[in-house]
Structure formats: C-alpha cells, structure tokens
Amino acid sequence: MAATAASVGVALGGVAFPPVIEALIRAGGWRYAYLTLGVVVAGTMLPVGLLLFRGRPEQFGLSPDLGAPRQRPPGTAEPAFTRAGALRTAVFWTLSLANLLINALGTGLLLNHFDLLSRGGVAREAAVIAFAPLSITQVVAAVGIGPLVDRFVPHRLLVLPMTSMAFACLFVGTVASPTGAFVYASALGFAYGSFQAINAAVYAHYFGREHAGEIRGMTFVITLVGAALGPLPFGCRTRRLLPRVGSRRGLVRYRDGGEHRRRSTGGRLGRGLMVVAL
C-alpha cells in the first residue's frame, strides 16, 4: 500500500500538467514548453532527491512486510533471487509481458491521443480535458487496488489492468463525443493506475531487494521496447504514414487521401489492439 501511495504522484501530475503544457505550447511553441518543464524538474526534484531521499528501511529501525502478511508468516526469510534466477521463473516473464503490453498499447494510445479522438469529431479542447478523468481514475485505481496487492497473489491481479486496457483499445475506435472520450480516458486511467499498484511492490514480493537493481534493470529494458514499438501499428495502419514522413508533399497526400477511411481504420485498430491486450 505504501509503494502504491508513492506512485500516486504520477497520476496527480496527469491532472495538473496537461493544461499547463498546452498553455506553454500556445505561448511559445513546443521547444519553449520543453525548456520550461526541464527547468521546473531541475529546480524541484534535484533538491528533493538530495535532501529528502532515504535508503533502506532497516537504517531507521523498520522492516519491509514483503507483501501479504498471511502469505509471509513472521520470521520468513526475504527472497534473494539473482537476475539469472529470476529469469528462470514463469512469474518474471508474466510480469514482463504485462509491462511490455501496457507500455506498448498505452504509449501508442497517448501519442496518438488527439488524432484518435479527432477522428470521431472530438475537439482538441475536449481531448485536453480528457486527461483529467484519465488521471483521476488512475489515482482512484492505484489507491483502491493497493490493498488488494497486500491480500492476494499479486500477479493474478494483472487481469484487472489488462482487461481495462483491452476495453480502451476497443472503445477508442467508437468515440464520437466528449462523453465517449471521458469514458475511454477513464478506462485507460484505470489500466495505468491498477498496473502501477501491482508493479510497485510485486518485484520485491517475489524476488527480494538484494538484486533488485539487476532485475528491474532487465524489466526496464523490456518496458522501453514496448514503449518504442507501441506507436508503430498506428503509423503503419493509417495509410502507411511512416514511409512518407520525410516528405511534406507525402503528408499532404496522406491527409487528403486518408480522410474517408479514418473512422473504419480506428475501429479495426481498436479491435486489433484489444486482442493483443487480452
């Protein structure tokens, strides 16, 4: 539960920052927005990290519970899997596949957020506001699912974020109003929030902390692969956009020639991504 609470800040940032970023882009362009955000991050997180970050709980007379108390009686030794040992377990690859899919599908949806919603006639202003229900649902899901991670086998809870992600992938192709956009964003937020709650504690629960850096480093690589590959189906599906990005004239041809297929393409793409998520 504590690990889940620590991850809630990600969702809260999703509520506050989209309108701010939109205003910065309108004021000075995307380069100005990135520069401003970089200064804000450096001016806040560097001092926080240097002054407030603490190490292992044992240094303060505390001990981790390592998951559900009923599953770990008092005196049970903390697991200490090496990276090689973790790679030989089925649960590691179950978690890795979930990381891959959540980041691939989520990144693809978010990077194409405005385009996908505009295909159904949703205005840009409404698409920006849709980040609010996304983030609020993300917070509620993270806080609500956190206690379940303490009471049930964590990796079996993965059905919750994956089902919600599947629904988001299917539903986005049918969105035609701001209300539909908010429903889609809420489903995506629930997928992210519930997965954050599970992912925050599951590795320490199964593999311990002694080699956590090596194990999480491997999962981080898998996560990056998912985030890198996720947007590709969108580009390939929308009139083969990727081979033409080097030509402004090609982009014009894509926009002119692909307009009549927008709605059907979104529906087929949503169904395909739903199958992958399930």
List keywords for this structure.
single chain; 278 residues; mainly alpha; Growth Hormone, Chain: A; globular
Written account of the structure:
With 278 residues, the protein is mainly α. It has a single domain, classed as Growth Hormone, Chain: A. It is 73% helix and 0% strand. The protein contains 12 helices and no strands. It has helices spanning 2-52, 83-87, 90-111, 113-118, 124-129, 131-149, 159-171, 178-207, 212-229, 232-237, 248-258, 262-277. The longest helix is centred in the N-terminal third of the chain and has 51 residues, at 2-52. The radius of gyration is 21 Å and the shape is globular. The two termini are 27 Å apart. Mean pLDDT is 76; it is low at 66-70, 239-267 and 269-278.
- Helices, by number, come to 12
Q: What is the CATH fold-level name? A: Growth Hormone, Chain: A
Give a count of the beta strands, DSSP E runs of length 2 or more.
0
β-strand amount: under 5%
By secondary-structure content and strand pairing, the structural class works out as mainly alpha
Sketch the major β-sheet.
none
The CATH class: Mainly Alpha
